Amino acid sequence: MGISGFFGRNNLSKIELKVELAPEIFATAKTPVSVSVTNKRRFLPIFLLRINIQNRELFFPFIEAGKSASKHVDMTFEQRGRYTLGLISLNSAFPFNFFVRYKWYNEESSFVVFPRLQQCKLFSFYEKERHSKGEYSSDTAGFDSDIISIREYVPGDPIKYINWKATARTGELKTKELSSLTFQPVIIDFSTVDIENTEEKISCVTYAIVQLIKKNIPIGLRLGSIFFSPSASCSHRTNLLTELALYGAHES
């Protein structure tokens, strides 16, 4: 019994656990999670290790001393918002399968689950709206000196592209449309989206943002008192999706 206790306790000692999530997680979609175990001991292997994380179990039958092993598991988060993985349990019935010994890790670092992607007519609506404002594609890359047309100013347009002569003539801000800047920005005002259910509205807006930025179309978002100027960058996309994921989280 003493031998069993010694090897059983040591089997769960000096273990380094690392959990890696996918860069982007959307609600209701399967996301791969990587779990890596490192045996920090110099001589003794790890035997029959089971790890339970978010009600998913991974089994590592054998890890050599000083070595690491990794496995992947698919997880699904049903709701948008901020999460933590919480308690992760390690257990093993080694050496004689008489007793199961446990050890716990508390993973307190948080991550954000983006809203569910829901395909809807919103994406098509914004595409049609863009074309109705006079956007078209150019077959040439062009330079900043190649002016294709003059259009109405859209919040987020760089000041250096404002055509001051046309602005003075019309009394309204006008922007130079260059052959290298043929994409008309889209501004999404969350309050004007005609979808009654808030969660469906968030999911539809999320889908529209993902699809439009995928086409390199600058997107701006007005969400209550918050306004994001149009951009098509990856960091901007992340900021928009994060804001939508946490929408209403601070309301009492």
Domain module tally: 2
Tell the overall outline: elongated
Largest beta-sheet details: 4 strands, antiparallel
Count of individual helical segments? 5
Computed over alpha carbons, the radius of gyration is 27 Å
Low-confidence stretches: 134-145
Query: How would you state the average pLDDT, rounded?
Result: 85
Distance between the terminal alpha carbons, to the nearest Å? 56 Å
**Main β-sheet, spatial strand arrangement:** 4-3-6-7
Q: What letter string, H or E per element, gives the SSE order?
A: HEEEEEEEHEHEEHEEH
**Beta-strand percentage range:** 35-45%
* Tally of DSSP β-strands: 12
What structural class do helix, strand and pairing data support?
A: alpha+beta
- Fraction of residues in helices? 10-25%
